[in-house]
Prior knowledge:
This protein is an alpha/beta fold. Helix content is 41%, strand content 17%. A hairpin with a 2-residue loop joins strand 1 and strand 2 (23-30).
Amino acid sequence: MAFIWPEIAGGTLRLGYAQAGNIRTRYLEAGDGDSDEAVIFVHGTGGHLEAFTRNILPHAAQYRTISLDMIGHGYSDKPDHDYEIRHYVQHLLDFCDAVGVKKAHLHGESLGGWIVAQFAIDHPDRMASLTLNTAGGLNTDPKVMKRVYDVTMKAVAEASPQTVRARLEWLMNDPARVTDDLVEMRLGIYTQPGFLRAMEHILCLQDMDIRMRNVLTDESLTAIKAPTLVIWTDHDPTAPTETGQRFVDAIPDARPLVVMSDCAHWPQWEKADEFNAIHLAFLAECGG
């Protein structure tokens, strides 16, 4: 089992808050804090920066490396409005400005992939590279949307170790990869005062009308200029590998699709060593 703290206990880390626009934003950072170029990990729906505790230090050996709680998530501020993709993109831009990142190697998992893909479209001058990890936003499946809504809302509305564990197990190909401290970490987040309201705002993208005005398209993806890596898995619960290939086919400077085996929706956690090697090799190729 991989626990959160042992993965990062031996490193030099900075855990704190930055004022990103009007959003007080929690983030974890390691590596060269003076660099204006950084690897930034962006989590998925209902997630938080601890999704990347198995990746921070291996990347920080070579790069300034950051993970953060996006708007409405984790311990960052939760304004009382629905969070559509433009809100996440603006938050990420404000965060980069707040911490002095001029060029970013953006990695997004699930919803995070949707966010960073749109960021790369809107702000090409701020991109060093792009990695899409089982990314959302291109595939629209009502059954998957309902499943995401139901299991996530239950974990908050009926928050308990059991319901939170069920939400986390949905991310893993092997349920044993969900550790007790990961459950406790997320349970603490999900039981914050007012978090149920925040989760309703987070899950607005599971509403078809809202989703459709935010979706990525094969045409919109052609505007991405950054070198791009697309990582998929053989057991992703949100979309088949063909969706990953659609990203690759649409993005002009995309590398061949990488499919990680024996993984579901969190390959960066499930097979961290393999993931880190793949991602670091791509960053080196990009000259990061």
